[in-house]
Structure to design on (122 residues):
């Protein structure tokens, strides 16, 4: 089982990026999916999550209204659209999959991607 995160990069403040997480090795159609991030010297923090059906989404207050999580179960892929990026969004972003509904802590997820770097310049 492998989760492959991609789409990170360097962007100016106010810009946008779209992260993708492609899963292989099994289907994740019945799993809840999440995105976390970790900045240097800080703990990994919850960013967003989406239910297995895509019907419910959850966001950290710091990204609400700017980020959108979505998924395509047919492609075994989920996404994080990030708009109006700020320098404080700079971090390594990780995708994760887990069985627990509306999970917001890292320990509640079972599978993790390798991370993709997002850097927002001021």
């Amino acid at each position: 089982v492998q989760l492959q995160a991609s789409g990170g990069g360097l962007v100016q403040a106010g810009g946008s990026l779209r992260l993708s997480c492609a899963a292989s090795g099994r289907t994740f159609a019945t799993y809840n999916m999440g995105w976390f991030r970790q900045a240097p010297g800080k703990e990994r923090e919850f960013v967003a999550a989406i239910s297995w059906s895509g019907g419910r989404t959850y966001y950290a207050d710091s990204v609400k209204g700017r980020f959108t999580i979505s998924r395509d179960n047919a492609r075994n892929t989920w996404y994080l659209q990030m708009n109006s990026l700020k320098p404080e969004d700079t971090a390594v972003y990780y995708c994760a999959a887990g069985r627990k509904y509306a999970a917001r802590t890292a320990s509640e997820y079972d599978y993790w991607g390798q991370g993709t770097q997002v850097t927002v310049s001021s």
Summary: The chain has a mean pLDDT of 95. The first strand starts at residue 2 and ends at 6.
